[in-house]
Amino acid sequence: MRNKALFICGSMNQTTMMHKISKHLLGFDSYFTPFYDDGTIGYLAEKGFLEFTILGKKVRRKTENYLINNKLNIDPDKRNNEYDLVFTCSDLIIPHNIKHNKIILVQEGMTDPENLMYYFAKYFGFPRYLASTSTTGLSDAYKLFFVASEGYKNLFIKKGVNPDKIVVTGIPNFDNVNEFTENDFPYKNFVLVATSDSRETFKYENRKKFILDALEIANGRRLIFKLHPNENFNRATKEIKKYAPDALVYTDENINHMIANCDVLITKYSTVVYIGIALGKEVHSYFDINLLKELTPIQNDGKSAELIALKSLEYFYSPNLSLEMKNLQLELRKT
Asked: Which of 29, 61, 217, 310 is the most buried (most CB within 10 A)?
């Protein structure tokens, strides 16, 4: 009987990352599910109260459509099978029905700034999801944690993550930015603004100031906005047209292609800032730029998914070997 692996998806970024890893998990039958919870949070999502999260029905439908279109095995909420390995991009919520599985955590992208709720979650046991992705890795519910760079490894260790579980592999979707330079986006040499969904996730944002700051940076150059997929498109477009009427607004365009063609990238807290840095663009962010450069995902020509799958297989077949020995095995296999 073949082994089985469950891949817990979520946003389209998370879903495509999981799909890429599954292609390299040789000897396993792969199954996929939209992100879920089998407790109170899941009940609230089912009633439509969490549409601003990856548990929302809108995101769930997108994930299901992707899985169907790519003819992947679907096991919604792990209802049908038991699994030898479970992969996920988020440990903010660990469903009860996978707590006894061997969980593999993969960093999905940038983590949020540490706010007051982060410390409540870390020191007083508040639910990690209340602090959003700033608490990524703090569940310790996983066996391995694959991260984007040495910079992120150091950041997670500083937060208290067990260093023995962290493996730097790079992360799919952010490990080969040069592939984005070949595209058919019609504009070049413009100033690109990637908006965030702060307001949809109940965080404060002065959108008027953000737009006016972008106009100042553009200084007469063409200004293009790419709206976050989770944003209220109608509201955001009206705001942009009010303060920057000549700007172009896109909602569904491939943002990686847009970044490859722009001269300047403006973001707040978006992971796409790493695409701009890796491509050598002028970037503006609410984070410290020097810190972002330290954290930028390593570029390995798109090998991250393969590395994650290989190291997961090494763990599965020899769980008691040290990471050093597994790294040695990997190097030997390369030669």
From this structure: 310
CB of 239 closer than 8 Å to CB of 209 = no
Tokens, residue 190:
């413009």
In 3D space, the residue among 195, 331, 217, 199 whose CA is nearest the CA of residue 264 turns out to be 217
304 vs 168: CA distance, rounded Å: 9
297: how many CB neighbours lie within 10 A of its CB?
Answer: 29
Dihedral angle sign, alpha carbons of residues 282, 286, 291, 293: negative
Strand arrangement, sheet containing 73-74: 73-74, 28-33, 3-8, 85-88, 103-106, 144-147, 166-168
Q: Is the distance from CB of 105 to CB of 152 less than 8 angstroms?
A: no
What is the C-alpha separation between 177 and 248, in angstroms, rounded?
24
Q: From CA 18, how far away is CA 84, in angstroms rounded?
A: 16
d(CA 23, CA 309) in angstroms, rounded, equals 8
User: What is the DSSP pairing of strand 191-194 with strand 103-106?
Assistant: unpaired
Q: How many CB atoms lie within 10 A of CB 194?
A: 24
Query: Looking at this protein, which amino acid is placed at residue 253?
Result: E
Nearest to 244 by CA among 284, 270, 283, 216: 216
Each residue of 20-61: pLDDT tens digit? Answer: 999 999 999 999 999 999 999 999 988 888 887 889 998 999
Burial of 1 (0-12, 13-18, 19+ CB in 10 A): exposed
